Amino acid sequence: FNYIDFRQKTGVIPYAFIGASVFKFNPKAVFNYNPNSQLAKYLGPSYDNLASRDGELVELQPLGTEGQETTEFNDRKRYSLTQIAIPIGGGFKFKVSHNWMIGVEYGTRITFTDYLDDVSGTFVDPSRLQAQYGPMSAAMSIRSETYDQNKIEGSGRGNPKTNDMYGIFGVTIMYRIYGNKPACPTF
To answer: Residue 181 contacts by C-beta under 8 Å, 6 or more apart in sequence?
Structure first.
């Protein structure tokens, strides 16, 4: 909608929006092979098999990094990579000359998932993940340099009580390509 009469030389229009959206996402992380890490020592020789994958960008959802659908945690289902969100935000349009406008907008997307970053619930013992999904699942579930096998399972990995959100900021430049009077079709 154009709320600015283009016959005016200048003008400012504030606006707000709210709606619904569907989006796809696919959390990934770079695998950093470190044979001297505590996790490598805990996982043993199977971790060494991952050396050739050092620096690889790894898709996280198929790995079940929080034990999704493992024998011990079969109540934890894999999250869908297609989700819905509520976009909400606002902005301003500025008419800067006869044919030119500039817009500035900020919007937040309120999602219904807590897995945009593949982090939500609690840690699972990496040996369980290794047994079910292999050493890459175990390695990608704990990416810190320190690892204490006696304190990990059940401790918080994320906050499952809140869903993820993300924001978008944009600037637009608009140029009116028609003359003073828009051409309307006649029938």
So the answer is: none
In a domain, residue 186? The reply is no
Q: CA end-to-end span of the chain, whole Å?
A: 24
Element (H, E) at 45: helix 45-48
- Which domain range does residue 66 map to? 26-87+117-170
Exposed, middle or buried by CB within 10 Å (0-12, 13-18, 19+), for 79? middle
Q: Model-level pTM? A: 0.77
Q: How many domains does the chain have?
A: 1
Tell me, yes or no, whether 145 lies in a domain. yes
pLDDT above 70 (res 23):
yes
Place 5 in a pLDDT band, splitting at 50, 70 and 90. low
Q: Are strands 100-111 and 82-95 parallel, antiparallel or unpaired?
A: antiparallel
Q: Nearest to residue 127, comparing CAs of 144, 108, 142?
A: 142
Cα–Cα distance for residue pair 73/59, rounded to 1 Å: 21
- Report pLDDT for 146: 64
Confidence of residue 67 (pLDDT cuts 50, 70, 90): very high
Chain centre distance of CA 142:
19
